[in-house]
Amino acid sequence: MRFWLVIFIVLLLVLDIMWMLDGFLNVQYGNLLNSNSYANQSTSFAYRVFADKPLISLYYRIVISLLILISMILGIISIKRLTSYKDLLTASDLKYRSLFMEMKSGFALRKIIRDKEGNIEDIRFLEVNPAFRQHTGLGNIEMSGKSVREVFTQVSEDLLADYDKIARYGGSFTKIHEAKGLNKTLRITAYQHEENVFATLIEDITKEKEIEDELVESNQLKSILLNTINEGVYFITEDRQIIWANERIMSLIGNSEQEILGKKCFDAWYQNREKCNNCPVDTTLDSHQAARIETLTENGKFLEIYSNPVYSSQETLKGMVITVYDLTDWKAALDKLEKKQEHLNLALEAGDMSSWEWNAVDNFINLERTAFYSHVSRQKWTPDELAGLLHENEQQMFYNQYKAIMAGKLKELTVEARIKNSQGEWVWYNILGRIKETDQEGKPLKMIGIIYNINSLKTIALELEQTNQELIDLKDKLEKEVVVRLAELRDKDLLMIRQSRQAAMGEMIGNIAHQWRQPLNSIAVIIQDFMDAWDFGEFNREYLSDKINLCMSVINHMSQTIDDFRDFFSPDNMPMPFEVDNQIVKTINILKDMYSKQGIEIIPNLEHCTVTSYAREFSQVLINVLNNSKDAIQDRKIKEPVIQVDLQLEQDKVIITVQDNAGGIDPEILEKIFDPYFTTKQDANGTGLGLYMSKNIIEKHMKGEILVKNTEKGARFKIILPLDIRYKPSSH
């Protein structure tokens, strides 16, 4: 632009010079120029106007040329100024561009992209500085000309709506945005630049937010601390006005926060009374130093009040922090302690006791009070001097323990020694000491201890020793009697076991007889049928074979019955694994026919489980329990009698429950049914040993437990067995 302007001025200057030269020639050669031929050929405007006045034409040309020259000079000056302004503008633009690029805050100029209905569709970046890309985590990605949805994977629709309002209606807003993906806290400010164009300023305030959070947390901690401490704290200004108080001070004053804030301190404490005498606030105001008083309030509280000055940054007194300690309980405790100390001194005097302390600096034992007699009144003793007061038999023991303590081999001193009293009698004292401080090598620096009279205790000890010897003699005598008694009890136990076995064998023989009676009848019927078959001509080889097979089947069943009863009476030598549910089924099968004959139904409800114990002894116990239920059912003539046997597994133990519907056991005898020889049977059938032996078998042999209680239906026996008798069972 400037180049073409210069060319135009140069051309204008050349034309002006030529125009002036034409005028000059017209003046000099006017005659020649006035010829018709020249006038016809000349194109000069001045010549045509002033053809007859060449000098006026020359003046006209000079004036016009001067005007043109002045215009050209002014144009050149204007061009120069415009160039200067442009340079200044360019420099300013570069300056602000540099500032725009180097500014720490992120800046972006953006334009709203709308759809046909005028709703916001997207936002396009017009201009973005590097700080904006840095704060938004986009690095060196070029954003100018791109839309928000092209640049960011996730876009906040709420934020877009806020931008739309600013771009459409003007105004501005500032929001705090938590950029979780960047771990940053950003302050976003947006304002309208022109319609549908807005600018956003982004500032990273993460550190400011952290400092603010720390400050808030610190203030919260301070508030919590001041509100949870046991001391009352409040802040007053120079004119004694309370501007802050914690909860403790409000409880001490007895008013709420609204009732004391803004009041004078003495008004809050004493309700409109004038300021108190000997107030620590007065001292602090006068001396600008901390002050303290102790006071007793009208409601009986003993308070300790501190006043501490608070200064401003200009070191002028800003106010005071008043701290109030409620020493009422402490004062009461101190009074009690003094009384207890007085009682303790009386007790020490009455009990002939004293405390002592030894230190390695002077190697002296300092007695708090003399526990001996009047002529031994001084308080400082060397260990040798104290040992000289002891009976010669105990002096060596004292020296040995003292030397062991000095060598770091012993921590406590324990010596029982005799010391003469005022009557010259030897009295027993116990000298106890313990190390309180040691040096780096473990050698004692200080010991504390007590000395107290044990003469009565020693006398009692001698009597106890004599009594102890008598007890030892009595113990030996009792042990001999116990051996004899145990032998008698063992004989009785053997007798009871034999009686129990005989009773069990009698019942089993009855069971065997019952089990065999039906098979024998069947064999007899078969044998009798042989003669009829012969008489009627039915006797042949096939008939004989069928009858023989039938007899053999019955005989095998009888043989199996014998094996079952033989297994039942065979003793178990050692615990073996067995299936509890199968053993219960076998036991029930032995008794099933006899119980069925009496109309008693046994209902098993069994889980499958295996234990390691004594199977046959378990069967004997189960038979005793079942027979107990059977006898109760028979005695009470129960209609539709039922005995239910349940088996369940619980963690490391097995529980067998036997429940009948015979109405239960008399509560008066419930605790006696496991006693030996206890029976409720009136005839000779009851020995009173069945349940007693069952309890011994379960608890002593099988390490289990047997219990009984009454239910709504009848008696319920519970047998608890460990899964493996070889290991200690868990407590039940």
* Low-confidence parts: 35-47
User: Largest beta sheet: what is the strand line-up?
Assistant: 13-12-11-16-15-14
Give a count of the beta strands, DSSP E runs of length 2 or more: 23
How many H/I helical runs?
21
Beta fraction of the residues? 15-25%
How many angstroms separate the termini? 110 Å
Overall pLDDT score = 76
Largest sheet entry: 6 strands, antiparallel
Shape, principal axes of CA atoms: flat
Give the helix proportion (percent range).
40-55%
Radius of gyration: 61 Å
Query: Which class do the helix and strand fractions yield?
Result: alpha+beta
Report on this structure.
The protein contains 21 helices and 23 strands. A hairpin with a 2-residue loop joins strand 4 (184-194) and strand 5. Helix 1 packs antiparallel against helix 5. The protein is of the alpha+beta class. It is 50% helix and 23% strand.
Secondary structure blueprint with pairings:
Blueprint: H1 2-28, H2 30-33, H3 36-41, H4 45-49, H5 54-102, E1 106-114, E2 120-128, H6 130-135, H7 148-151, H8 157-169, E3 172-179, E4 184-194, E5 197-204, H9 206-228, E6 232-237, E7 242-245, H10 247-253, H11 257-260, H12 265-270, H13 280-287, E8 291-296, E9 302-311, E10 317-326, H14 328-350, E11 353-359, E12 364-367, E13 380-381, H15 383-388, H16 392-406, E14 412-420, E15 426-438, E16 444-453, H17 455-535, H18 541-569, E17 576-579, H19 580-597, E18 601-606, E19 610-613, H20 615-636, E20 642-650, E21 653-660, H21 690-701, E22 705-710, E23 715-722
Parallel strand pairs: 18-20
Antiparallel strand pairs: 1-2, 1-5, 3-4, 4-5, 6-7, 6-10, 8-9, 9-10, 11-12, 11-16, 12-13, 14-15, 15-16, 17-19, 20-21, 21-23, 22-23
Helix pairs in contact: 1-5, 17-18, 19-20, 20-21
